[in-house]
Design goal:
With about 90 residues, the chain is mainly alpha-helical. Helix content is about 45%, strand content about 10%.
Length: about 90
């Protein structure tokens, strides 16, 4: 199993900004945001997961990825901490 690269972790962080409960909520990553997040957002767009290079909405592929990410976070979160506010 490969180790996750920082670029991949940055992309996961940007994906986690989307609301998994709504396909109608997008995000906007401003040009003065953390350069790693700006680059990650651009890569997610190039990979077809989001509609715009600076955010936008999740594509169907992006929605699938976010569902998997949400499930992974749920699995990895210790019992008793899953309902705590962030």
């Amino acid at each position: 199993m490969p180790i996750l690269l920082q670029d991949t972790l940055d992309e996961i962080h940007v994906l986690a900004l989307f609301n998994p409960a709504s396909t109608l909520e997008g995000i906007k990553v401003h040009g003065d945001a953390d350069p790693a997040h700006v680059a990650a957002t651009r890569r997610l767009h190039e990979k077809g997961l989001i509609t715009q290079a600076d955010g936008g909405y999740l594509t169907t592929l992006g929605q699938d990825a976010l569902r998997h990410l949400d499930l992974l976070v749920t699995i990895l979160t210790p019992v008793g901490e899953q309902d705590l506010p962030a």
